[in-house]
User: Fold these one by one.
Assistant:
Number 1:
Amino acid sequence: MGLVAALRLAEAGIPVIVVEAEAAIQEDLRASTWHPPTLDMLDRHGLAEPLITQGLITPTWQVRLHNTGERAEFDLGVLKDDTRHPYRLQCEQYRLGRLIVERLRSDPRVDLRFSTRLAGLEQRREGVRAIVDDGGGVRAIDVAWLVAADGARSTVRERLGIALEGETYPETTILATTRFPFHDHLAGLSNVNYVWADWGTFSLLRLPRVWRVSLYPDEGETIEQALTPEAIERKLQRIVPKAGGYEVLEVRPYRIHRRIVANYRQGRVVLAGDAAHLNSPSGGMGMNGGIHDAFNLTDKLIDVLRGRAGDDLIDLYARQRRPVALEEILKQADRNRARMQERDPERRRQALAELQAIAADPVRARTHILKSSMIEGLRQAAAIE
């Protein structure tokens, strides 16, 4: 999100300093689903096509019953008149970061500082003084505005004493990757699948070279026990029995949150992405929502910095994006999570039947997919003045 904001500001002719604590773009397990409007936005900067060439175009997504293979499938082709990209793209988040960093390094308007941590923050009447530590000393940076896109553990948010209000869900998700071709063994599988099984729930997300599998500890199993190679193997074998065992490439546990700050702006500091809101990854809305924040915010910052609008225009960013995060991202992701956490077989069947009815009705399907693809939320935000 921070890199997207930096690119947009720089391409508008505005000098930018990017401060990143890590030494390089991290390639750990993060988001991998790109929604249609996000691709439309990135296309405006020539970033969609190179991302698409590295990813997997995914025209449908499913909710499935594992034992029977019954499923509700949603076809994003119904959005052909609403977007230039009527599909999801499955591609690792870090690939966009690489593309943007490559471009920023050659832009004289951008001062890109890796291995640099925020050590202090002082709000001033005409801007912000950030104290940073690059390992070679502590320095002050004076800027007109500071965009805090520093993630769930935002140092900026902590320094300002801004609370991230909400809840942490009780379960821990375990993300595992494997090259095993689930699509050759499970009939009719999409590239994005949310699955109910007799023994619990899981999801299967396909990338060009691997499948990502979201798993959960069994009842009575601690997270430490669930993370052992033996437990991961047992869970994968329940999905598709495999002689010789699975090759598991990466494993990462993470907690799921539903949290949001009360205000996205404090003085000349503005929060975006995970620094402002956290949601369940079910539905793939977190990264996309952060990029939508960055586009909305930079549209307004450019006008303010060019003298075409007053500072109060930044308040419009908060008025537009916070309700969408609360109503269209956090609540929808919460509903997605609750549906997949359902354990009662009859309620599962009722939920599946309702989803199948929606998918089979062109009008209802389009309405549902406009929301799940985040297009409706963007339209709602644009209508707020």
Number 2:
Amino acid sequence: MTPARAAELVGRFGGVPLLVVGDVMLDRFIVGRVTRISPEAPVPIVRFESEHVRLGGAANVAHNLAALGGRVSLVGIVGDDPAAAAIRDRLAAARIDAAGLVVDRTRRTTEKARIVTERNQQVARIDYEDDADASGAVERAIVDRAASLARGAKALVVSDYLKGAITRSVVEALLSSARRASGSPAPVVVDPKIPHLDCYAGAALVTPNHHEAEAATHTRIRTDDDAREAARAFRARAQCDAVLITRGEHGMWLADADGDRSIPATAREVSDVTGAGDTVVATLALALAAGATTTEAAILANHAAGIVVGRFGPATVTPPELLAAL
């Protein structure tokens, strides 16, 4: 892809309407210094230095889209608790429409608290969550809000972390909404979890990571040939138009109707891979909505991921940063 073509596509990002549906989370980082081991147990003692709170999961996908210039609506589940209030505050600061958030007072908001050293080494993680699938009135509310907000969206993103917001009924409603969109159907891009693989049939693009692709296809991916076969098998099983396997330092592998191709990694320095998959799926969706081919969208997403893995915690990319990387 030429610099001129990249600039043309990124220049179209501003104001594109998109919808993200998925598992909304809050990521909390407790940062400290480790200088000794506890005399009470063989565990490090972390001396507190700072604390950071970031949007996570589907909320991080929405944050990435907003940072790239998209006009974003978000649908998901939160509880009635301080974590939900923190998420709403940060969504408002990022100018993300949170009207689609469904409050379920019977569950807590998903929150991941990570204890890390000043060198970004993770010591432990505490998950606060109730991950039962949404049902009854809560599931119906998610379906209704997703269907309503999907009407004007140019691309739809499913951010599935197996925390309850994504069910078969929710995905079917999104796919149906995409097909009913005026003009050409809005692409549905899925960041998947393998237990829900059969729900994604009809999606434009599914983005398993290396381990998810291995689990879904019962293969080991060690070479490009392995990646090619796994991508083809995954695409056939998921019944989707295209598959993009993210392979860390080995880049990505894309399989669609036009064939198979490798996309080399671009990261120069890896600090923290937290949230990199969110950046990938966000960039893919926005690029497709802006008129990119699947290959062009994958190249843009690859460069965006190369930027965020050099940063601490879930991070975002701006259009100037993306163009500079290209």
Number 3:
Amino acid sequence: MDSDRIPTRLAVDWSHRRAEVELASGLVVASPLTGRAEEHEGEIGRTDYDPESGELTITFRWGDTAIFELGPAEAPGAPVVYLDQNHWVMLARLQWAPHKLTAHREGYERLMGLARDRTITLPLSSAHAFETGRKDGRQRRELAATMLQLSRGWQMRNPLKVRREELLCAIAGLQTDAPLRPRPVFTLDPDALFDASDYLGESSPDRDLRARLTWASAIAETMIENEREDDEDARAKRERWASMYKAIGVGLGESNASREEKRAAARAAILEDFANDLAGAAAAARLDSQAWEDWLENSEDSIATMPATRRIQEITAQRLSNPQYPWRSNDLSDMHFLSCAAGYADFVLAEGATTHDLRLAESHVPAGARIPRSPAELVDAIEAELL
């Protein structure tokens, strides 16, 4: 191919309803959008893909931009820092209304500087998307823009998928001498945020690129759209879950259960929560009934090797040990997402109660993320590691 005819930019200008291809010669070839694309309305004004860098720049209708790394990539090239939602809110406040941020301002300024310099990777999760979806108006637009800009397309694979793969690898490992590990937890794979995702790459480079371009635009549009979302059924399920665990904790306290009995109760609760995942893993590994019973009997040793699942079990045991613990519906998300992140990220900045519990669990779980108590402590630890 003539070098002057090599594409150097692929763009969709939604505002003017046209697609553009810029060639190395500087020539721009444009054609009108047709069909459903022509009718599309949303918050994205244009997208520009740079084949050389492998990055997509999304420009919103009000002028702000967000750059997505598209991948594929085996792993992030910088330390992974997972932030609980409240810290994303503080970063957005720093960006859009800095006069309103007083507590920990210096730490957040340093953290944002590291993210903008690409010294760290700040992945998004479906918990972040869900919490952002509960907002609307200017507050949602500003929060979503900050998250999209600083995450650059990196995601944490859905914790339900991670725990299933931990269980599957452990159970399938009974059938092979080769150690099995879950897929990379932090990824650029399309749709990795969600439980249903099983993206394994498309059949050709062109199809794979199309899937990645589509995903980046879709998640940006979903995060930024001005429509509050709140799933009443999901909220009710979380509340029932919290009530059930509160009742277990109260019952253990009233019966003066020993520490060992409380840990056994936590293990039983975890196995009950994971019942469908366990059955699926056993079926996939084609275990006979005796091998399955043997695994269940010795599952404590197996779970002890699982970075995410073991942390969920430890936090559950700690909280069940306190009959006064105020179980909340948000605990379901915190325990699973922050435990997953703590098992596989380099650093996790969580909310206060889960920070305490994750740090308390460190001597009982596989090595994982460092859990600082504040933004300044986080940045100090990152900078020390990078020296």
Number 4:
Amino acid sequence: MTLPRLAASRARDLVGRFAGQPVLVVGDVMLDRFIVGRVKRFSPEPPVTIVLFQTDFVRLGGAANVAHNLAALGSRPSLVGIVGADGAASRLREQLALAGVNVDGLVEDRGRPTTEKVRVVTERNQQVARIDYEHDADASGAVEGALIDCVARHGAGAKALLVSDYLKGAITRSVIEALLTISQSAKAATGQPPAPLIVDPKIPHLAAYAGATLVTPNHHEAEVATHLRVRTDKEARQAARDFRTRAQCEAVLITRGEHGMWLSGPDTEGSIPAVAREVSDVTGAGDTVVATLSLALAAGATMAEAAALANHAAGIVVGKFGPATLTAQELLRQFGI
């Protein structure tokens, strides 16, 4: 079953409400550094590629890229995560501030480096090597306590809550519980529906996501979690249903690359065909998907409408190099607006 297409008029209405929507992002922040050069020759001893340096630049990665996507779409995002006491943290804060992201929720942990991925790429955007700086032990003690305090402080008034889990230590069961408490307490205080909790997951933490509104595994993660093959729509439907049961979440959106998406919720189920687009780089596309989903839900979209907007957003960013963002205007152009 294919879900109905989102009408241009409805897309305009929803995207028009993006501006200023407060969204809280909690997760593993990263700095992506690119060293760009020209392949000069191969070294004989040992036989490795020699890259002649030309330039370098940085991009926001992980949960920081999610927050950047939200800001680029017009949201008012706050970000909670862990950084080290190092130069990478300073560059990360600087880039986030330039992007319009509130960085007061970044907790410093002197016992770990800021997560940084250094990629050596050619002038044709071909990756030669990657060096990772990280310490991925779960946050505990004072650091975990500080994360929970930041969640409580910045989550008040948020229209959507978003978890960006990369297994780098920021997402613990206690942090998830703090987010669920915020969501439900807002409902009790105002009588309004709870702020949706959207999770970009990692399977080792699956049990911790119980109670989430929407979880967004890719097809490989769905296969690992359910022990089911996901190649066809029929297989995606069964895997999504099983994933919902295992994760104890309200709804699941499986992202399937060139095969689009499959949404399984309490009232809606079906496929969303991929948007035809020349693919340059899929790095960070999942960040764009969850950012757009969360912002659309904050703006009043149904899950099917939010998924349709996220699908179009992903179709745009895969045509760009590295972790990328898009604007509300770019998104609307996908609907001929």
